[in-house]
Write a structure and sequence with these properties.
CATH architecture: 3-Layer(aba) Sandwich
Strand order of the largest sheet: 3-4-2-1-5-6-7-8
Number of domains: 1
Shape: globular
Structural class: alpha/beta
Radius of gyration: 19 Å
Helix content: 40-55%
Organism: Mesorhizobium sangaii
CATH superfamily: NAD(P)-binding Rossmann-like Domain
Family: Belongs to the short-chain dehydrogenases/reductases (SDR) family.
Keywords: Oxidoreductase
CATH class: Alpha Beta
Distance between the termini: 50 Å
Largest sheet: 8 strands, mixed
Low-confidence stretches: none
Number of strands: 8
GO molecular function: oxidoreductase activity
Strand content: 5-15%
InterPro entries: KR_dom, NAD(P)-bd_dom_sf, SDR_fam, SDR_oxidoreductase
Mean pLDDT: 93
Number of helices: 9
Length: about 270
């Protein structure tokens, strides 16, 4: 990649929100951008070539990557953005629901990454940017399973970066905080709700809604993805936005007990 011709980028989950903003930002930076959506979309959207892909299906992922390589001949940047959310007490979700969440948020990243890596190794270079979250490194009450998927992506990405460096491939994480997208509206509900959590869940819903209203625009995250993709000396983690930077700093330097107390107060949870 270079500033004149940064190369070919593939962004999963690019039909809306952070994914769409990222695809547009990369296109404006000169990338030839392919985006994916789970449902069939128009073949061209704001200069981004859209492809249908279900990241939970091996054959769908393989076909999508083959299509990109047939059209562009290479993949210089992979942005793993496709994902889903789940809001509720940890014990309110069945094992099957938890597995479905991991199939998208963790194994979906694994499928697409594994499908892209052979081409990147042949090229002798490549960048992979995985969308994580501040919930990938802090506690997240009533988002325990979603947070678990992001913790998994953090460990996977850090380890993978070490494995791939000999091939000229680097892996980075982008960690947003609250972002003004339709994420809140599309959160899955637990499949076995328990009455004992109703009050706390309602309080958390109000807290999340209030925070989302003050959240960053998706373009803030998209610019951070671009920075991670083009940094000459890529870092493992990039905080996206002011709140994400503050949370990252506090998590690293504030004593655990003080951080715990502050988190519960902010979320309106009893001490």
């Amino acid at each position: 990649m270079n500033k004149i011709n940064p190369g070919v980028a593939l962004v999963t989950g690019a039909s809306s929100g952070i994914g769409r903003a990222t695809a547009n930002t990369l296109r404006n930076a000169g990338f030839h951008v392919f985006g994916t959506s789970r449902r069939t979309a128009s073949k061209q959207s704001d200069g981004v070539t859209m492809l249908t892909c279900d990241v939970t299906d091996d054959a769908s992922v393989a076909k999508m990557v083959d299509d990109v390589l047939a059209k562009a001949g290479r993949i210089d940047l992979l942005v793993n953005n496709a994902g889903m959310g789940l809001f509720g007490g940890a014990e309110e979700s069945s094992t099957a629901q938890a597995q479905a969440l991991f199939d998208v948020n963790v194994f979906g990243v694994l499928r697409v990454t594994n499908a892209v890596l052979p081409a990147m190794r042949r090229q002798g270079k490549g960048r992979i940017v995985n969308l994580s979250s501040v919930q990938g490194f802090i506690p997240a009450p009533y988002f325990a399973l979603y947070s678990s998927t992001k913790h998994a992506i953090e460990g996977y990405s850090e380890s993978l970066d070490h494995e791939l460096r000999p091939f000229g491939i680097r892996v980075s994480l982008v960690e947003p905080a609250y972002t003004r997208t339709s994420f809140e509206d599309n959160l899955a509900a637990p499949d076995q709700s328990l009455e004992i959590y109703d009050s706390a869940r309602a309080g958390m819903t109000a807290s999340v809604r209030k925070s989302m209203e003050k959240g960053d625009a998706p373009e803030v995250v998209a610019k951070t993805v671009l920075a991670a993709a083009t940094d000459p000396a890529p870092k493992k983690r990039y905080a996206a936005g002011k709140m994400a930077r503050q949370v990252s700093f506090l998590r690293r330097f504030v004593p655990a007990s003080a951080f715990d107390k502050s988190l519960r107060k902010q979320l309106g949870l009893p001490a």
